[in-house]
Amino acid sequence: MKIAAIIPARAGSVGIPNKNLRLIQGRPMIDYAIDHALNSHYIQEVYLSSDSAAMNIIAKQRQIHFIERPKSLCQNDTTLDAVIAHALAYTQAEIIVTMQPTSPTLTVQSLDGAIEKMLNEDWDTMISVVNDPHLAWQKTDVGKLVPAYEKRLNRQYLPAWYKETGAFLITKRKYITQDSRLGPKVGVYALSSQEALDIDTFADLQLARLMMHDPKVAFYVNGNHQRGLGHIYRALELADEMNSKPDIYYDTLQTSPDIFGSTTHHLIGVHGLSDLYEHIQKTHYDLWINDILDTSIDYMLGLRALMPQTKIINFEDDGEGILAADLVINALYENSRLAHVRTGPAYYLAPKLFLLYQPITIAPEVKSILIAFGGADPQNYTDQLLELIQDPTYQKYQFTVVLGRAKQHVKQLLTKQSDHLRIVYDVENMPELMSQADLAFTSRGRTAYELAMLGVPTVSIAQNAREEAHRFISNENGFYYLGFQPSQHLLKNTLDFMLASTPEERQAWHSKLIQHPLRQGRQHLMHLINELTMEESYANTLSHR
């Protein structure tokens, strides 16, 4: 039984001029319908019906049949039934598949599934639909609005409501006339909401471009007491920027799943690199993101061997593995001689909640002090400051101490609360706490950037030798930097100095802190990532031709 596809594509689209030629992922929209037809296991002939010279050229390039459509069948009120009936003169096929060029998100699997269903179940006509139940209202003959449902239920409990998508209509030849393509027995083939997109407006076109640029993304990230949790937080923030759920891998030998909190992202625990490599072999990724500090060249070459076409981005990486990455983002470092390494605060990924808060107003005197050394605080600076502020001298101030998920001895530390000391654990709204502070003490990492966004005068202390290299968090940029492992004596003197600071001094620190482009970092970062994935996606699209 011969099956032919007919793709109707007239030139005079009114809503979107040249609609069928609009580029999606670097290809004319109609090219996707042609691909679907050519790649089908069942379709033996492909015809393009049009009055457009450009469509004739495309048909020749794709080596499919072109049907010159008469002007009488190119009017705004011309039905598809008449167009397809006209095309029957060019083929002897017994089954005709009408394929709209405005459904580029359709898959060949669904197209073939519909043809199989029609053949196996002996339908006369098979129509593409999407199950789209909603609470709806309709007008009666007298103009009264009445509910088009029996019970008000949540959407997932409503009865099926099939809406035609226009992607395809498959029918037996004998039922095609100038006025109809429907046989007596009509079946439907349900598509996913993504495949059901029919481009009729510019909004549809924008959505199609977004949906077609949907790279398969994976993260490899680890965090713990020694490494800190900034990598985890950044991975989750970045995962929220993706158009679909990425796979987030973590090493169970280094990272507890509890560290990720209550996220609903797709977490995959692996047992070492060999297990990670085994997982990678089973899935194709367009983009791989490492957030594990320094990478070795062996690890990166291992990734390259398994994913030669995949784009790889490394965060906070100063190891030899950066030579094998496509892009490296080191927001905490300054300057690099490598063109693919981007450094500095312009690439800092600010948490979403912080973008909702404005910088603080400097108060006449210091009353509230925040102590927040990140998710882990491996040097126990929190403990040292807690010991200091037990002194009655500090009881006139209000201290707020934040303990992170990876902080040790949390229960013991929580018992130290008093009238002038509030201790909180795993805070959900950190910018709110920071906005209430006149001063802050923190590490030389992510939290310092957050405080800088709000302009909170901040004392910063490095947790390790690596943090000592975070040059942005320095006196010249508005921080008060104490180095690594300051003595208890230096901590006390610094605390006293900051508490006694004048409004003018704190205003000067504040002004320096808020001048940095930290709020624009997310935009800069996503621009780089999208550029990289667009290159990969476009290359993959062309390779499928």
From TrEMBL:
Pfam families: CTP_transf_3. One of its GO terms (molecular function) is N-acylneuraminate cytidylyltransferase activity. This is Cytidyltransferase. It comes from Candidatus Fimiplasma intestinipullorum.
